């Protein structure tokens, strides 16, 4: 029957509106070629609707499918993954509307729309995408109601009213289920990779890479503190520790130790193997460098997708999350690459003398990695460091002399340094003397290695912008920073940040504020800084950032622990069985109330006004002594009027004839109804 029923013009327009509504939240995850194809198909459907062109034939449809699969394979690399499945599903949804012929095809379009919206929520759960998806589901519900309409023509208002009513009735149930149903951890998981490149730190660093990163205003992560927020100058977010230096680029030395990013080495990102990574301490497999006494979580981080394993954290971090490990160099790492926005809690370890001894033991095992550098590159700075060490044979005095040098001489902090050649450190230190954190960190770490002091470069972020209204810190990519850590026997690893000497305002106040105050060079590529000169744009962006933060913290991250805390706050100590029983009874009661309101058994059945007058006439006839059967028709009652007096019989006969004329007329007139009322009073 569905194949035989045509789709009305109004229903087709609804389906075209649905296609646009579904493609809008998908646009962020669709490639440009598929967006162009969707617009072309939508225009084709519009032309078919106006009778200008014909639907595609079988051969054309088959060729289009082959071309789409080939494009996905060519441009995306593979089909058998979530992104490839979403692209093929989007193509089917787009193209099916063109060849739509009957009601069955229309319902298939609706099913594809449901699947497509669900897959898109796996790829992105931002506030914008979630709101757009909610609107798309509303349009989808309107289409579903319209296609199920039993009348000959689908109206515009009726689907809107019914869909809005269903949304309102379902909202309380959905909220109750979301808050009260136990949050069970997933039985299985999939790696969701949108395939989009992400801007962020990697496991290697060169001055050029850091320059591009600092020019980006993309959000890196947000942080909320349970207690007092540290000072701006103490916010060093360690992410990557780099020990291998080839004369220009710093990178992590050991993939088993640090866990290199496997995203580019296979279609399915694999988790780090606990047995194959002995230098990472997991909660279920603690290692000696994990402090025995760990405090309660002190801050919570919401990290944006980075496609890397690293997790930014302050000094001496620890997380009880089973997917988060503590590396021997005292930084956090995730078991899988961060392909979606995640949240994790971090505590600060209380470290003592035993921990220092373990660090010293680890240093002895890998000391060569902290002292190696290419002898044939950067000969000038090697000679400079050796000569300075001969004059200052103390590490503290050596470091202080270097800091005094960058403070007093013509060194400058800039976002646009000159390009470096083969001997990059020599050219920076002796020629142009202009650079940013990566240049200074690389030079200081190299000179420390030259004099035999173990050193390493740490990549991460420094500072961030504090939101006073929402009480959280947001760190963007332009807050990326690099500094040095060098070894001292009596102190362990000591942080050394040359940027604090050359440009202390970069460390003591937020970077964006420094740009607004024009303390650094203007960067035309820094969008956020350009917006900062417009107060209403800055205010709008801050408000939206707060909404995104609250959405992720309170909704997307509403997991079992957060649910337990909320329910204990509301109900105190409770039993899950009692809670589930109460939830079932509450939902059943709510549904019963809705059904009762819809049925309205207390309401008297509405009858036609003329019929009500006819029933009144029957009551009057029974009072006159005439036995009347209410099941008889008006014509049958006319045959029973012989016992009535002549004048009454004539009046009743005239009234019944007027009533029958009114009932069988094409339209009821108010003046005829009023005449019936007056005539009934005279009987």
UniProtKB/TrEMBL annotation:
Residues 429-500 form the Transglutaminase-like domain. InterPro entries: Bact_TGase-like, Papain-like_cys_pep_sf, TgpA_N, Transglutaminase-like. It comes from the Bacteria. The chain crosses the membrane at residues 12-36, 57-75, 105-123, 129-150, 162-181, 579-597. Keywords: Membrane, Transmembrane, Transmembrane helix. It holds the Pfam family TgpA_N. SMART domains: TGc. PANTHER family: PROTEIN-GLUTAMINE GAMMA-GLUTAMYLTRANSFERASE. This is Transglutaminase.
């Amino acid at each position: 029957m569905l194949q035989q029923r045509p789709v009305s013009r109004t229903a087709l327009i609804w389906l075209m509106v649905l296609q646009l509504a579904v493609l809008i939240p998908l646009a962020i995850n669709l490639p440009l070629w598929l967006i162009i194809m969707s617009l072309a198909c939508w225009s084709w459907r519009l032309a078919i609707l106006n009778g200008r062109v014909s639907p595609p034939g079988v051969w054309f449809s088959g060729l289009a499918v082959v071309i789409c699969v080939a494009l996905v394979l060519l441009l995306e690399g593979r089909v058998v993954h979530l992104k490839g499945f979403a692209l093929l599903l989007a193509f089917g949804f787009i193209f099916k509307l063109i060849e739509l012929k009957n009601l069955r095809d229309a319902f298939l379009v609706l099913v594809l729309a449901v699947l497509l919206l669900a897959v898109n929520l796996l790829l992105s759960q931002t506030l914008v995408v979630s709101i757009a998806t909610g609107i798309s589901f509303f349009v989808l519900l309107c289409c579903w109601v319209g296609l199920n309409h039993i009348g000959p023509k689908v109206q515009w208002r009726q689907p809107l009213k019914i869909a809005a009513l269903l949304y309102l009735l379902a909202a309380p149930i959905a909220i109750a289920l979301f808050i009260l149903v136990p949050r069970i951890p997933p039985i299985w998981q999939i790696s969701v990779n949108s395939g989009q490149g992400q801007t962020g730190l990697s496991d290697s660093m060169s001055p050029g890479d850091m320059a591009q990163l600092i020019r980006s205003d993309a959000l890196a992560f947000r942080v909320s503190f349970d207690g007092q927020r540290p000072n701006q100058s103490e916010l060093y977010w360690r992410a990557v520790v780099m020990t291998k230096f080839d004369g220009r680029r710093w990178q992590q030395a050991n993939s088993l130790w640090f866990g290199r990013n496997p995203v580019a080495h296979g279609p399915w990102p694999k988790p780090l193997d606990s047995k194959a990574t002995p230098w990472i301490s997991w909660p279920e497999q603690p290692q000696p460098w994990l402090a025995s006494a760990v405090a309660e979580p002190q801050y919570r981080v919401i990290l944006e997708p980075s496609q890397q394993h690293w997790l930014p954290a302050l000094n001496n971090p620890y997380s009880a999350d089973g997917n988060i490990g503590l590396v021997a160099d005292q930084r956090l790492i995730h078991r899988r690459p961060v392909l979606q926005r995640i949240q994790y809690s971090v505590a600060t370890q209380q470290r003592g003398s035993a921990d220092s001894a373990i660090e010293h033991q680890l240093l002895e095992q890998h000391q060569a990695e902290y002292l190696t550098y290419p002898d044939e590159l950067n000969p000038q700075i090697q000679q400079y460091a050796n000569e300075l060490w001969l004059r200052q044979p103390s590490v503290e005095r050596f470091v202080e002399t270097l800091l005094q040098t960058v403070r007093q001489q013509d060194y400058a902090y800039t976002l646009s340094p000159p390009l470096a050649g083969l001997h990059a450190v020599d050219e920076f230190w002796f020629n142009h003397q202009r650079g940013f954190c990566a240049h200074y960190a690389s030079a200081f770490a190299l000179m420390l290695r030259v004099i035999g002091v173990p050193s390493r470069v740490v990549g991460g972020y420094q500072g961030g912008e504090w939101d006073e209204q929402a009480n959280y810190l947001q760190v963007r990519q332009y807050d990326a920073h690099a500094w040095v850590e060098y070894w001292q026997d009596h102190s362990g690893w000591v942080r050394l940040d040359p940027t604090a000497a050359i440009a202390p305002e970069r460390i003591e106040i937020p970077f964006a504020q420094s740009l607004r105050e024009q303390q650094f060079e203007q960067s035309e590529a820094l969008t956020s800084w350009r917006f900062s000169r417009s107060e209403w744009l800055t205010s709008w962006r801050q408000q939206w950032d707060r909404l995104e933060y609250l959405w992720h913290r309170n909704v997307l991250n509403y997991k079992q622990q957060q649910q337990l805390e909320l329910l204990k706050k509301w109900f105190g100590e409770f039993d899950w069985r009692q809670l589930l029983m109460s939830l079932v009874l509450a939902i059943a009661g709510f549904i019963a109330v809705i059904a009762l309101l819809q049925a309205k058994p207390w309401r008297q059945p509405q009858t036609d006004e003329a019929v009500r007058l006819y029933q009144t006439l029957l009551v009057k006839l029974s009072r006159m002594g005439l036995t009347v059967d209410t099941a008889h028709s008006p014509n049958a009652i006319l045959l029973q009027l012989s016992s009535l007096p002549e004048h009454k019989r004539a009046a009743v006969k005239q009234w019944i004839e007027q009533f029958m004329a009114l009932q069988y007329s094409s339209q009821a007139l108010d003046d005829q109804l009023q005449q019936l009322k007056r005539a009934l009073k005279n009987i």
